[in-house]
Write a structure and sequence with these properties.
It contains five helices and no strands. It is mainly alpha-helical. The longest helix is centred in the middle third of the chain and has 31 residues, at 17-47. The chain starts with a helix and ends with a helix.
Length: 96
């Protein structure tokens, strides 16, 4: 068994189970972030009806500010968005 794991670790072309699970977790977090951001955009659209016509970069900057002040976010939601800059938010919003 130890010999097998050494072979896998030495051959970088073969992904390890741990690496594959980390990729899946990252994908899942990205999807959660995107859903949360879209929900926040919908909430912001109710008060700023012209938001739809703003460029994605401007919306991302507004969202970044909104996240830091938003009282309605749970601690899980806030931690999910912690560390995202406005450019990260822009990229997530522009992904299909």
């Amino acid at each position: 068994m130890a010999y097998f794991s050494i072979l896998i670790n030495e051959n970088s072309n073969i992904p390890t189970v741990k690496a594959m699970m980390k990729d899946k977790r990252t994908d899942l977090d990205g999807e959660k972030q995107k859903r949360l951001l879209l929900r926040l955009v919908a909430e912001m659209s109710q008060t700023d009806t012209d938001l739809y016509y703003h460029p994605t970069s401007a919306i991302a900057q507004k969202l970044s500010e909104h996240v830091s002040k938003a009282p309605g976010l749970s601690s899980d939601e806030r931690s999910l968005l912690t560390g995202l800059g406005w450019r990260d938010i822009q990229i997530l919003l522009s992904m299909n």
